[in-house]
Amino acid sequence: MITGGVLLATSPWFSAFSEQQHTRGEKARIGIIGPGSRGQHLMGFLAANPKVEIVAVCDVFQPSIDAALAIAPAATAYTDYRKLLDDKAVDAVVITTPLYLHHRMALDAFDAGKHVFCEKAIAYSLEETHAIYQRYQQSGKVFFVGQQRLFDPRYIHAIEMVHSGEFGVVSGIRAFWHRNNDWRRPVPDTATDEQINWRLYSAYSKGIMTELACHQLQIGTWAMREIPDKVMGHGAITFWKEKREVYDNVSCIYQFDNGVKLNFDSVLSNKFYGLEEQILCNKGTIEPEKSKYYYEEIPPAPAFLQMLNDVENALFGSMPFAGTSWVPETANVNEGYYLLDRKPEGDGTSLMLEAFAEAVITRKQPPLIAEEGYYATQLCLLGHQAMVEERSLVFPDEFKLDYLNHKAPESL
């Protein structure tokens, strides 16, 4: 059981809920910019929240507007996001457009006096990501990034156990996200392939790194409470070669100051191992996605079972053909333990959006959540750059914040 104090130590952004009893009856009036598949998914949670009113939606693709209005029929529909930003009924916006549009839309939203939730990755480049963070700081508005694992009970408990020292010292982190599909969606007659399958084109996307790695790199920095300073990697198109400009096979190695490595791998032509983050410590291993942990040393057999084994060994010498009496209970297979006593109802998305609504109502930015999202984006972009340039890169000083082991340049 995680207590309030421990929860806030591990996940201080949960302070967004500190006034939830006092905000009953109040509403966060939210506009959705880009209600495609992801936007509609988020709208489902927002529409179910009694503290949220979806007052506007905006898209250039009519089927997306139609689907959004089916979820929020009272919302005003726009085809120009700037018109939505001019709408005085909108307190905050949720940006779920293709990656290359995030930068301009987020800056314009802050300039229009709106609170901002932006899906990860925040932006298309290191420079754009830094510009958004700076504008957020200047704005005095709330800023959330779509890193839902920050609100996932499995991950919160896993990181709390890591930070408590339960598993000793973190020795390495392995993250992977494997799929077996080309990421392609059918294109209706009213749209272009670039419009629907923008993730496959380098002008609009950084592919695997911004869509998948962004989530998992953040788990590494959260566990380590540090930001890695170096990255190297390799990417290629090895299987899905038709009409694709972004890698379908990537591998990156991030290095922390103490020498610990964070490895990220993704292959889009084999799904057998799926996705996971493996936090490797000298006393145990944690797999948050599976909600399991394992100690390095399996607890010894109960004393009376050990005694039976000793007797059998004395009588029969080597291990009997049928096995010893206590082997079934202490077999050399580490099945581990579950982090939670029951399966969580979601992946943290609902809680994340509830926290955003609370923050919009109270106009209070929860600590560290913007910084976690910022670095998750910068690290995935830096990894992509290292693969494109085929060289090892160091995290640029000009993009560092005063956060964890990094310090921003004095001029900022």
Describe this structure in words.
By secondary structure, the protein is an alpha/beta fold. The protein has 2 domains: 4-147 and 348-366, Rossmann fold (3-Layer(aba) Sandwich); 151-297 and 336-345 and 371-399, 2-Layer Sandwich (Dihydrodipicolinate Reductase, domain 2), CATH 3.30.360.10. Helix content is 34%, strand content 18%. The strands form 2 sheets. A 9-stranded mixed sheet has the order 14-13-12-11-7-10-9-8-15, with helices on one face. A hairpin with a 2-residue loop joins β11 (275-281) and β12 (284-287). α2 packs parallel to α3 (62-71) and α5 (102-111) packs parallel to α6. The longest helix has 21 residues, at 369-389. It starts with a helix and ends in an 18-residue tail after the last strand. The model is unreliable at 318-331 (pLDDT under 50).
